[in-house]
Amino acid sequence: MRTRRSVHAIEGNTSDETLLWYGRAIGELKQRPITDPRGWRFQAAIHAYQRGTDPFAVDGESLPSTQDQLDFWNQCQHGSWYFLPWHRMYLFHFEQLILSEVQRLGGPSDWALPYWNYSQDDPNSRLLPISFRAPTLSDGSPNHLFVSQRISDANAGNVIADETDVDLSNCLSKQRFSGPELGDTGFGGPQTGFMHSGRAPGALESIPHAMMHVRVGGNGFMSRFNTAALDPIFWLHHANIDRLWEVWKKRDPDHLDPESHQWLRGVSFQFHDVAGNRVTMRCQDVTDPTAHPLEYQYDDVSDPLPESFGVDETAGDIDVLQLIGATNEPFEVNLNATATQCVVRAPRSDNTVESFGVDSNVTRVFLSIEQLTCNGMATAIEIYLGLTPEADPESNPTHRVARLPLFGVREASEPTGPHAGSGLAFSLDITEAFQNLDDLGDDKFRDVPITLHPVGEHSGDAIRVGRVSLYAE
Ligand code: C2O
Asked: Is the pLDDT at 104 greater than 60, yes or no?
């Protein structure tokens, strides 16, 4: 069985040639035209493709047939319980392709994708791995693991991410794999049909997954669905996300994959094998990476959290969610100010916000953010609860309830694109923060101040929010 190993262990061993072979194989793939399923550009287009954002587009070049584009391109599953299984299938077929090139070139027959574990205590684990930073190798030939389309600090070997960006305590403590689109979306994402984007992501998909995309990408490849897989680090990033699925399952016997027919067999996905033949896969084919057809393992799936950590006790049965208040109109996040505030007004009546913490009918409170759009580049938005309008969010870290990565926001904002402009959505469990809130408002309404604070680089293009709402479970 092939073993996917840590990129840090591989780089720490000077005689290990795994990354050298990876680069050589990518060099082969790059020589193939976009019509070739075994080529670098076709492989990236499987994730997402739009002609207008293709950095390698050549006027007049031929493209795959419309039917092939429909069947094989723009397939990535986001904001969905298919996020993990689809990306596992995608990585598997890519890894098979690289392996076949490595073997053809005379390399090791047990080649496997490395993974990038950026969530270690050592902050250096969050630097872009060294082998990906330089444009050339020591002999002067091109380094195919390098792309210039990253945030400049990545290739400079500087800090690009902090502990919050790669924190695993939220995702790994999720008790359920899936959940409803509003409310607790679980470890792996909400129950949806085939879903390119648009629904609230699961906990792992948001942090660390989407956060690392934007931290590496800046205004470059990794920040966009359309170009993410053109960065060779994409595949090591996703090998780590795939590994964390195994870590989650192993850390608690109650952490189980969905057992429904709909997830296991309801939707099928198309790929090519290395010979160019069409392959169909369903989730049931990829729940165990050590079994046929996948047959790989990770060198480390141990639990990174303290043993005592993380039974999410609030996760009982899923009750019906009740809307308790929402903003009335879309608004813009002011990029020139440190923060923008909106206030959700919740009518005071039985079984709503007022009774929260008193009436045991309400067990959890969720904050939902919908139709977040931006036509340029933006890294992330932080959400704070209960600040006064003048307060500086960064000096009130205890009020922060989430950091929301805006990976893919441009694609999700284009009215003519495959996402129909519906923007990004998020659903956050804010129960604890809510319990600590001052009770503001008047005798008819309770006011909940919600502050949005942009973090990281942005291009200055407006960030709009369609609606912010509160739900009680
Ligand atoms: Cu489909 Cu990390 O993205």
From this structure: yes
Q: What is the pLDDT of residue 338?
A: 87
Ligand 1 center from residue 213 Cα (angstroms): 8
Ligand 1 center–CA 399 separation, angstroms: 29
Instruction: Categorize the per-residue pLDDT at 337 as very low, low, confident or very high, splitting at 50, 70 and 90.
Output: confident
Centre of ligand 1 from the C-alpha of residue 210, in Å: 7
- Averaged pLDDT for residues 356-360: 44
Amino acid at residue number 237: H
224 CB near ligand 1 (under 6 Å): no
Q: Which residues pair with 400 in a beta bridge?
A: 384
Ligand 1 closest atom vs CA 86: 1
The average confidence (pLDDT) of the chain is 92
Q: How far apart are CA 432 and CA 274, in angstroms?
A: 50
CA 300 → CA 98, 236, 240, 394, 430, distances in Å? 22, 15, 11, 36, 32
- Please tell me if the CB atom of residue 47 comes closer than 6 angstroms to any atom of ligand 1: yes
Residue 91 Cβ < 6 Å to ligand 1: no
Strand ranges, E, within 107-230: 178-179, 189-190
